Amino acid sequence: MKKIISLLAMTSIAALLMMCSEDKIEPAGLVAIDPTSGSGKPGEVVTINLSFTAPNGTKDLFVYENGEESDLIALAGATTTTYDYTIPGDAIIGSSITLTFQLVDAKGYPSLLTNCIVTVGE
């Protein structure tokens, strides 16, 4: 009887150890931008430099304009890129446009959102 109990205990411990695998989960990536704000006249281009920290590698960059998806850039492992934003020709002088960037890493994990405010000038 003691042998059976010992065998069951050892089997249970082995099963528990197998269920507790040590999958290493890396954090989602981060997006850094420079400058964090910009300005220009309608029709002008504002260039934004982006860099990424992504332990799982980079895959895609989503760009949102005032909350609506406007662009998708395939990064394929890149750690930096530039984004050229053309201020719409009909943009209202004095208004602000919020560009939001979100990285998706190679494992499909999204980063936090990072904003750049573009002010429409004269």
Short description:
This protein is mostly beta strands. The chain has one helix spanning 2-19; strands at 30-34, 37-40, 45-53, 58-65, 68-74, 80-86, 96-105, 114-120. The chain is elongated.
Q: Please, could you describe this protein's structure?
A:
Helix content is 15%, strand content 47%. The chain has 122 residues and is mainly β. The strands form 2 sheets. It has a 5-stranded mixed sheet, with no helix packed on it. A 3-stranded antiparallel sheet has the order 1-3-6, with no helix packed on it. β7 (96-105) and β8 (114-120) form a beta hairpin.
Name the assembly state. Answer: single chain
General form: elongated
Mean pLDDT reading: 87
In terms of DSSP E residues, the strand content is: over 45%
Rg from C-alpha positions? 24 Å
Count helical runs: 1
Poorly predicted segments: none
SSE ordering: HEEEEEEEE
Largest sheet: 5 strands, mixed
Widest sheet, order of strands: 2-8-7-4-5
Q: Measure the end-to-end span.
A: 90 Å
Query: What is the number of E strands?
Result: 8
Keywords:
8 strands, 122 residues, mainly beta, 3-stranded antiparallel β-sheet, elongated, 5-stranded mixed β-sheet, 1 helix
Write the layout of secondary structure elements.
Blueprint lengths: L1 H18 L10 E5 L2 E4 L4 E9 L4 E8 L2 E7 L5 E7 L9 E10 L8 E7 L2
Parallel strand pairs: 2-8
Antiparallel strand pairs: 1-3, 3-6, 4-5, 4-7, 7-8
